[in-house]
Amino acid sequence: MAEEDMLLMDQEDLKRLSVIEKVVEKRITQVEAGVILELSDRQVRRVAKRIEEEGKKGILHKSRGKPSGRATSEEKREKILRLCRQRYVGFSPTLASEKLFEIDRITISRELLRGWFIEENIPYRKRKGRKHRKWRQRKEYFGEMVQIDGSEHDWFEGRGPVCVLMGYIDDATSEVFARFYAYEGTMPAMKSFKGYIRKYGLPLSVYLDKHTTYKSTKKPSIEEELSNTVSLSQFGRALGELGVNLIYADSPQAKGRVERLFRTFQDRLIKEMRLAEVKGIEEGNKFLKKYLTVFNRRFKVEPAKADNLHRLIPKGVNLDNILCVRTPRFLRNDFTVAHENRLYQVENNIRSKEVTVEERINGSLLITYKGRALRCHEITQLPQKIAKPREIKMRKTYIPPQDHPWRSLRIPGPLPERKQEEAFAGAL
Questions:
Q1: Which residues pair with 146 in a beta bridge?
Q2: DSSP string, 190-202
Q3: Residue 307: beta bridge partners?
Q4: Separation CA 186–CA 183 (nearest Å)
Q5: Rounded-to-integer distance, Cα 337 and Cα 345, Å
């Protein structure tokens, strides 16, 4: 047998050859060989006959070294690689294979495409190595805990402004709710939370990081220290009034589900919006409503227990009265309130020195007292102060009288008459 043929054999081939040779030499029966090799006696006879005719290389399969009949044609391969270099730039093999099937009707395995990417040096985003973390069991019920976070990114790849995606993901089912906003702050957080609870209801708890929007950095006052309470952010105060528990994460890895969601969206969602030519926040939010329906249907999982812990919004609760920014302000003697460099005239006659300014998520502003809205309007024109001309006062020069002590100054000691005159003049 030629040396190049021996190199084609692996350990399994050598094992089969040693057993079949014993069959050819009639040292064991075909049935015994079939039991050893887990083959039928018919297959053993076929292999033994081939070895008798061709020698040891007869143990090799006839298709060894030949191209597969199911191999992708070179023309199809070039077409797929051209699309991946032009239309699907930066797509991972998994996402590229999905888009090739959905849009171009080309069926291709993601692993085969991955091999082509490596051969052709086509760059794509790869997973980074990560530290070992202790695994945490998912919550058992839908609505038991929702992870919330915001991700600032160039979501529209220059077709629109850099903005923030506020993302919500249920810990038990991985069902996702998300909306685009101009920044990550109190108002976007309240707007997105209002959209979430109108769709799903009030969750039992939310899992947040320690961004100043969610956790106040204000030092507790003496009253708060005595009552063993902590300062709450406006968002934390609103969720507390709605009966939603706040859980703060000590690290990004602790809320890894929502962090991984953003990593997925920065790959998949961006490219989907690129194909749909989405431009701007408004178009992005319209696209998200359709996209998340398909995304959740595909990627959400069944919870361990079927009950839903989301609560309906209680009747009579006005969300706008709760999901707002409340700021205490002093009421002046002329019943005016200063807020954000603006002056407001309160028309109600109330006996109080303090009122509350409420900034609503719809952009309106109310001044309230004990939960009751007061009639008020903004004072747009203030009286201009008349600038008085500045008086310039001339400083008088002090001239000492003739009998002032320094006029009679004398230098003591036996100095010469000329030195005495110079010293007397220097003292003057």
A1: 170, 206
A2: HHHHHHHHHHT-B
A3: none
A4: 9
A5: 7
CA dihedral 257, 259, 260, 263 (to 10 degrees): 160
DSSP-assigned letters across all residues of 6-52: HHT--HHHHHHHHHHHHHHTTSS-HHHHHHHHT--HHHHHHHHHHHH
Sheet containing strand 342-346, strands side by side = 336-339, 342-346, 376-378
N-terminal to C-terminal alpha carbon distance within the chain: 127
Q: How many residues does the chain have?
A: 428
341 φ/ψ sector (left φ>0, alpha ψ -120 to 50, else beta):
left
Q: Which amino acid is at 100?
A: L
CB atoms near residue 143 (< 10 Å): 23
Strands 245-248 and 205-208: parallel
Residue 3 structure tokens: 């040396």
What is the SS3 assignment for 130? coil
**Residues 124 and 267 sit within 8 Å (Cβ to Cβ):** no
DSSP state for residue 167 in the 8-state scheme:
E
Classified as helix, coil or strand, 222 is: helix
CA dihedral 171, 175, 178, 184 (to 10 degrees): 0
Report whether 156 contacts 289 (CB < 8 A).
no
CB of 355 closer than 8 Å to CB of 329:
yes
- Bridge partners of 245, per DSSP, are 205
255's CB contacts (< 8 A; 6+ apart) are: 147, 149, 207, 208, 209, 249
Distance CA 337, CA 356 (A): 10
Which parts of 40-185 fold into alpha helices (H)? 41-54, 74-86, 93-102, 110-120
Cβ atoms of 214 and 189 within 8 Å: the answer is yes
Q: How many CB atoms lie within 10 A of CB 421?
A: 12
Q: What is the pLDDT along the chain (428 residues), one digit of tens a residue?
A: 444 444 467 778 788 888 888 888 888 888 888 888 888 888 888 888 888 888 887 777 777 767 777 788 889 999 999 999 999 998 999 999 999 999 999 999 999 999 999 999 998 887 776 666 677 889 999 999 999 999 999 999 999 999 999 999 999 999 999 999 999 999 999 999 999 999 999 999 999 998 888 888 887 777 766 777 778 899 999 999 999 999 998 887 888 899 999 999 999 999 999 999 999 999 999 999 999 999 999 999 999 998 999 999 888 888 999 999 999 999 998 899 999 888 999 999 888 889 999 999 988 999 999 888 999 988 887 767 666 777 777 777 888 888 878 776 655 555 455 555 555 455 55
* Alpha helices by DSSP H, 158-312: 186-199, 222-226, 234-241, 256-265, 268-276, 280-299
Angle between helices 74-86 and 93-102 (to 10 degrees): 110
